[in-house]
């Protein structure tokens, strides 16, 4: 298990992490979500030893992450960090060699990955001549080339087109299926909702909501209800108990429930106001759960 345990970190006296704890199990894709500046990159940098925490520690398989453990972690930093002037294949071989991989094996793996992820590059082209999406694929390969036991990826999907997104998602799912814990940060909540086994939402340096998307729906989400009524008095939606009105169009109102909303009571109240044509409940999306967690 990859564990972030009670991490705190301040910059110039300003706290950024305030006791952040989370755990990613082997074979789990974990989506690390939070507003800009919430502390995601800081936490990931601490895991990789780029930054030291003020308190707390990161462990892999019960062992505090040190230089030796770090070599077994594949990391995709937010600032990316490949050399623009160097050819992608040469860089990948170089990174693999840093991890102690034999040159012939490194070269073979680099070729296989470049081929598999469809990175088209002339033999002499430096990285900087590649499109942003292709540079990002090379960055992913750099994180994978030493066959890591853990993956930590900072916004791996940002700026990717749908085809590149699918390719990236496929690779992450493959590692998850091999039993690797995969943690990645993202603002693309639809993607996180679709891909991740579990999600953690960080706010002001602590996890404020965590679980499978289904668990978050039960604990942190507020379902919406859509009601269509005919023959009802004006402003009927505002007369209903235990809900907030999100939108009203014609005879239909969209309502956000509250934690104590009684749907039976709501249905009875709607029936008492007019002729009920439709009463439907919709589960909140991860984006709605996220907004809720930010507003709480
Ligand atoms: N080296 C540093 N020195 C001073 N402040 C820093 C440093 N690194 C990060 N910060 C501050 O810490 C806060 C958290 O930044 P961090 O990059 O961890 O957030 P994030 O959740 O990754 O945000 P985003 O979603 O925008 O990438 C920000 O206010 C940032 O300005």
How much of the sequence is in beta strands? 25-35%
Q: What is the assigned CATH homologous superfamily of the largest domain?
A: P-loop containing nucleotide triphosphate hydrolases
Order of strands across the biggest sheet?
6-7-8-3-9-10
Overall residue-averaged pLDDT value: 91
Structural class: alpha/beta
Helical content stands at 25-40%
Question: Can you characterise this structure?
Answer:
- With 296 residues, the chain is of the alpha/beta class.
- The chain folds into 2 domains: 2-218, 3-Layer(aba) Sandwich (Rossmann fold), CATH 3.40.50.300; 221-295, Alpha-Beta Plaits (2-Layer Sandwich), CATH 3.30.70.
- It has helices at residues 40-47, 67-70, 88-98, 103-116, 132-144, 162-177, 189-195, 213-220, 263-273, 286-295, and strands at residues 2-11, 14-24, 29-34, 55-60, 63-64, 73-76, 150-153, 182-185, 198-203, 206-211, 224-230, 243-249, 252-257, 275-282.
- A hairpin with a 2-residue loop joins strand 1 (2-11) and strand 2 (14-24).
- The longest helix has 16 residues, at 162-177.
- It is elongated, with a radius of gyration of 24 Å.
- The mean pLDDT is 91.
- Bound molecules: adenosine-5'-triphosphate.
Q: Which descriptors apply to this entry?
A:
single chain, 296 residues, alpha/beta, Rossmann fold, Alpha-Beta Plaits, 2 domains, six-stranded mixed β-sheet, four-stranded antiparallel β-sheet, 14 strands, elongated, binds adenosine-5'-triphosphate
